[in-house]
Amino acid sequence: MKFKLLFVICLALFPAMKAQKTKSLFNGKNLKGWQVLIGDAEFKVEDGVIVGVSKATRQSTFLATKKEYTNFILEYEMMVGEGLNTGVQIRTQFDDVKKHLFGLQVEGDDSERGWTGGIYDQGRKGWRYPLTYNPNAKNVFRKGQWNRIKVVAYENHIATWLNGVHVADLLEETVETGFIALQVHSAGKDKEGVENKWRNMTITELNTAPDFSQTTAPTISYLTNKLTDAEKKDGWKLLWDGKTSQGWRGAKRDDFPEKGWSISDGILTVHASGGGESENGGDIVTTRPYKNFILELDFKFTKGANSGIKYFVDTDLNKAKGRPLDVSFKF
Description:
nine-stranded mixed beta sheet; seven-stranded antiparallel beta sheet; 42% strand; signal; hydrolase activity; AL/BT2_dom; 3-keto-alpha-glucoside-1,2-lyase/3-keto-2-hydroxy-glucal hydratase domain-containing protein
């Protein structure tokens, strides 16, 4: 049996996409429609190619479109300089006051790690789809050559392809709007002057859902308290519905505690008890028992907090107030 206690999870079924107009993001001549945000690395145009020149600095430089996009198919060719790390930002924003850029990035990676086509949340959450999720795609990247990238972003669903191979399949928790940007990553002195290159950049804005039925990469989801059709088929169940106390009760009572716990915005929270063991509402348990299972959940706690997940709980053996006898995984 499989079930999930999730504050972040999945979804995905889409009809076929209607024909929509494809536009070039780069005119092949100059950087009209683009602007440099933070950093001082050089971007230039040579022979119909955008060239980003690596500079020994601690700060990355980004060349961003002046227009923002939400749902689209983005295609481009990229040549990553030897030993460099780069990427293309999508749905990205820039805080001009804090000089802070944040948003999803489609990775370009010339290192032995080989995570090109993976998805990273720049300036915010870090890796969303590292290629540890799809290790077979690590060998698709062609070092020292042009590589073809395709990105499909529609609502919460984002998928990438590298040289025709499906690399990443991501379901994000939020739908964002933002610009496209090219990155020249911060680098050491040994990488000074090494170049990243981009060409044949096109975008097709979508007003209807594309067909994701041919995706082959493992799906990773960060949606809130939802299961994908694939997860349901595999036997996963939500252990908590994200809205009510249904399926849960106090460890020493037949109903849900009236105090000490709260449910809001898809998050189940236990409140401070002043350091007392199982005080202020006590522990909560599922209303039905489980024996053989895989349990997954997301958790977060404040500084100094002490909590855990208990399993194989017997609420009758321990007579102490609010706390059953159990085996537990401590946080």
